[in-house]
Design brief:
Blueprint (H helix, E strand, L loop, with lengths): L11 H15 L2 H9 L2 H12 L2 E2 H7 L5 H13 L3 E8 L2 E7 L1 H4 L2 H14 L1 H13 L1
Antiparallel strand pairs: 1-3, 2-3
Length: 136
């Protein structure tokens, strides 16, 4: 009876790297852009930093839906993508102020366009159902 050897299964990180490579070669720029900043937490941070530079705790207060661990992860990711920059203000106590880089500033019209689109097409869909519940 012949011996059948199984190929070792790829790890999760190996599969993710393969998927990234395939996606990068086949995707259009719009899809790649959404992959970089297109989730709710990343957009919340970018949107908050468009107004002004903020410290970590200020970002926690303004960017709803973020816990400290998630915010830290999002800031590290956006920093690695060159969208956000952190300036150390002091070491005792440790304080960092986060701001958008030039690359991040270029997202301002995109975020504004999404806000305008949402006010026109998403908010009206939500408002009637909540108004109905309030009047019941």
């Amino acid at each position: 009876m012949p011996v059948v050897r199984k190929r070792p299964r790829k790890t999760k990180s190996e599969r993710a790297a393969i998927n990234r490579e395939v996606r990068t070669h086949n995707a259009c720029p719009a899809i790649e852009s959404i992959a970089k900043v297109g989730n709710e937490l990343r957009l919340a941070v970018v949107s908050s930093l468009i107004q002004r530079p903020l410290r970590f705790n200020e970002l926690l207060e303004t960017a709803t839906g973020l816990d400290p661990r998630s915010l830290s992860r999002v800031l590290k990711y956006l920093g690695s993508e060159g969208i956000v920059h952190g300036d150390v203000l002091s070491t005792q106590p440790f304080a960092v102020q986060y701001s958008l880089t030039e690359k991040g500033r270029q997202l301002e019209p995109v975020v504004e366009a999404l806000r305008v689109w949402g006010e026109r097409w998403i908010i009206p869909e939500i408002a009637p159902s909540s108004a109905t519940r309030l009047s019941s």
